[in-house]
Structure formats: C-alpha cells, structure tokens
Design brief:
about 220 residues, alpha/beta, Rossmann fold, 2 domains
Length: about 220
C-alpha cells in the first residue's frame, strides 16, 4: 500500500519564508520517520521467509549451504529430519525409491536383507539439481540389518560428496548407528564424516533436546 503524502493540498502563496522553512523541516522529519518504520518492518518480516533462520545465522552456518536428505518409511526418521531443519535451516529433501517396499514387516526384512547382500541400488523418484552447491549435508535413515536402506546407498552413489561435511543421523530399534557410518565413509571417501546421532524410533517425536544437544556437540549450533 502506497504512503499518503501528508503535504498534499493547496499551498498558500502568502506563506512567509519562516513558515516555509518550518514546513520543509517537518516534511524531512516525516520522510525520515517513514524510512525508519520501513526498515523496522523489513527486519520483522525477514525471519518468516522460507529457509531463513536467524538462529542458524548466529551459529556460523550462514556461510555454509545446508542440505538435510533423509529416507523414512514409518515417519520416525522424517521427524528427526524436521527437528534438525527447524534448528539449522537449509534445504530438506526426502529420498524416495520408485518401487515401494512391502507393507508386511517380515516381507520387508527379507527384501532389505537381499538388497544389502547384493548391494542393490534402487532407482529414485527425484534428484537434486546441484549437489555441488551444498557444504554441509545431513544424511538420515532408519537402520535396516545394521546399516542404511538401499535407497540411501543409491543417493550416496549418485553424487560426488568430495570436500563436503557429511553428518549421519538415524532411527533404530536397538542397534544404534550400527555399521552405517563405516558404510557412508566407503561411499564418500573424500568427505569429512561428522559424529552421528542415533535415536530410538519410539522416541523420535520427543527427541528435540537430544537433537539440540547433538547439534551443539558437533558445533552446528551454540
């Protein structure tokens, strides 16, 4: 909405120089007030922009472009990914296989075990256009047979993570990170692998404090 000029109207030609000077000073003050208010409004509006986090800027991650990529079947790992995203900002990306896994848990276990043994790499639904633009990459997944699921293997194999910091996080039923960090290191030999986070699946929705403590420990937030 445009500002209304308070000086609009008929000017009295008989106005004295003193009065004219006073009006010019008043107009200057009004314009200065408008600029000041506009600046304050801009400052208030900025934090609500997508992916703009004032907290992340204060931690030093403002100079690093952050990606949070995750695979989630039941929603537990997605929950942790969302918590990380709220803390550090950046872009968030869900890794999705073209072919869905069986709904039955026993059938799923069988398929996952076969994929692990064969190092199968399923096709993914979507890709990231420019992975090179990211400096800090979180990789999230549930633990299947002691490591990450096959779609994560595809994701890590499709891109060059050289020179980037890779930060693993997982949800599990008792195995912790398993051998997933070792397996990530094999697929990302030229990356810096940060200390990972393992969250019990049943605790995912209430893991905010655990996530925040971990992010502070690895110097992502303060």
């Amino acid at each position: 909405m445009s500002d209304i000029n308070p000086e609009t109207g008929i000017i009295d030609n008989t106005m004295t120089n003193e009065t004219k000077d006073a009006n010019r000073i008043d107009l200057t003050r009004r314009n200065l007030l408008k600029v000041t208010v506009a600046g304050l409004l801009a400052g208030i509006a900025a934090p609500v922009l997508p992916h703009l986090s004032s907290h992340a800027a204060a931690t030093g991650t403002d100079r690093k472009k952050v990606l949070i990529a995750y695979y989630s079947r039941t929603g537990n790992t997605r929950e942790i990914a969302d918590q990380i995203h709220r803390s550090v900002g950046g872009d968030i990306f869900e890794i999705q296989a073209v072919k869905l896994y069986p709904d039955d848990y026993e059938d799923l276990k069988k398929v996952a075990k076969e994929e692990l043994a064969s190092e199968y790499k399923p096709a993914l639904k979507t890709k990231i256009e420019n992975i090179r633009s990211y400096d800090l990459i979180f990789i999230g997944y549930p633990i299947w047979w002691g490591t990450f699921p096959a779609p994560v293997r595809t994701f890590l194999s499709e891109y060059d993570f050289s020179g980037k910091t890779v930060v693993p996080f997982c949800t599990h039923l008792g195995s912790g990170l398993g051998q997933s960090v070792t397996d990530i290191s094999k697929l990302c030999p030229k990356s810096k692998i940060s200390d990972g986070l393992a969250v019990w699946g049943k605790d995912a929705k209430t893991a905010q404090n655990e996530v925040a403590e971990w992010l502070r420990k690895i110097d992502i937030i303060k």
